[in-house]
Amino acid sequence: MIQTKLQAVCLLIEERLQIENTEIRKALIDLTNAGGKFLRPTFFFLFAELGDKEKQNPEQLLKIAASLEILHMASLVHDDIIDDSPLRRNLITIQAQYGKDVAVYTGDLLFTIFFDLIIESMNGSAYLAKNSAAMSHLLLGELNQMADRFHTDNTVENYLHNIDGKTAELFALACLEGAYFGHCSEETVGLAEKIGRNIGMAFQIYDDILDYTADKKDLKKPILEDLAQGVYTLPLLMAKKRHPEAFMPYLSKGADITVEEAKIVADLVVTYQGVKEAKAYAKNFTKEALTLIDRLPKGETKKLLKKLTTYLLLRTS
Which of 38, 140, 243, 269 has the highest local Cβ count within 10 Å? Predict the structure, then answer.
């Protein structure tokens, strides 16, 4: 239903990335085309499909969808700097290839492209302020996660608060903007943001589970990267809650934890049901999203939204 629109998003992003530095341009275009899921534009267009097509502005929708993916890309580039990540989608990261200074400016450049797109597509709309607030929430989620690094007393509540900003906020924005600029009913617009937030929460939890269950080839990034960086995600927090004494000898080492010790911690997370309990959390968020989707107008789009939301479960099942 929306594949052609997603291809158009990809082409628009490539067009906006026509910068003089050919190496950085190529690196960004490669990142765009290297297996990115385009989930945020996908949810955006699916919600727009629920609206009044006669009132829709296709160029406006295209630019907003591209802005969502560009904002996501900018956060990935900056994440890689913070995490010192060598790989992203099986490609060498910009920070690993060109240095952190170049990567910082590259991420900042993507933010400016994001701003250009939303100004062009929604100037004068209250949604300019919504985008600003969403970006602030996203960045605060990342900053709060950084502040919690290597804190052995980190809580599940803190973790959920952080991922609500760093991941769920952008999913919520994508669904909300798709419904609003797609000229959906007020009820659908109200449901869209809640659906997107629940999907985003589930998505991030599943992503964190993969750090403990997937191999390097499947994950397309170094395994146990979060643990090594002192980011204690839900699987670890749930397991540690059950048996703190098993984890403290390793976590108390902070950044000095070795690769072998990290693997031991990962085994403990699985042994003490951390992955199982994290999956239960994610399934609850998914269940809530599906319950809300049931309240959307009947039709093929509603079926696709349910199918896509359910499909995200399959990454760790």
Answer: 269
